[in-house]
Amino acid sequence: MAHEVPKVVHQWNVTKGDGFDSLKYSEQPLPELGDSQVLVKCSDGAGTVVAIGKHVRRFAPGDRVVTSFFQDYAGGPVQPTAYTSALGGALDGTLRTYGAFNEQGLVRVPSSLSSLEAATLSCAGVTAWSALFGLSDYRVNAGQWVLTQGTGGVSVFALQFAKAVGARVIATTGSSDKVKFLQDLGADHVLNYKEDVEWGATAKKLTGGIGVHHVVEVSGPVSMAQSLKAIKIDGVIDIIGYLGGSTEDQPGFSDSFKYRCIVRPIGVGPRILLEDLCRAIEANPEKLRPVIDPKVFRLDQLQEACEYQWSGQHKGKVCIEIS
Questions:
Q1: Which of 93, 99, 100 shows the shortest CA–CA distance to 56?
Q2: In order of start, what are the domains of the chain with their CATH numbers?
Q3: Handedness of CA 70, 74, 78, 84 (dihedral sign)
Q4: Which tens digit of pLDDT belongs to each residue from 190-225?
């Protein structure tokens, strides 16, 4: 099916300013398409191919695709060049109506997913997948214990992935209103970290004193001490981010030595892991369907969407629908 190539793009850019006020919405001319690039009608990270450069062989107009976070990192050990190809960092991101991407930085969308659902895979989805399955000798298996934190995109994906392979999940939350949400997703135990400040020790007790095999750590220094108390010897703490902020009293090198665990920072993941994730979803579409917060925002509502996510009210991924 032929697609009309537009002349302009509506997009958001980060400019000078403080906080979300630095985000500016504008209309810009459509950039010229390179020989190895694919023009995609976007939906916050996923969309439909509109046109292709003369050297493109992997895609054709009409194909549905999702962007790989690193446009120049297909697989293998991470190289410095990967970080110079990060969307939304070194390269322009996907909050625009159309975008030109290198064909090596795109993956086909699982047929069961909408573009909005597929858009959740390129960052949150593949990050969670990388945490649980990206380290070959420490992949999560049936019967093991996984600890997730909160109800954000990465944590919800990690819960789903762990349950899909038969692992047991302990989830934490600071809101009693979100307990049932986590239980409905399959969490075996839900701990409220505001009510139980020693939730790490509690989590370890729930495993019979052995400890959890994987902690998907999204809060950072403020929760790391409890994550260490929860982890088993030779377990893996996958550090995703610092949502909880920083603190002066935070664990250091000696603590990982004390608890005899692997502390591993996760930088999203390469294209090959995104392809693995998409194949897994294709084989288990309902079990692995992305969880999207009921409140979906339009492209021109980006600042409101950011404020909503920052408030912590969301359950799953906060998405931008680009019409």
A1: 100
A2: 8-123+269-321 (3.90.180.10), 126-265 (3.40.50.720)
A3: negative
A4: 999 999 999 999 999 999 999 999 999 998 888 999
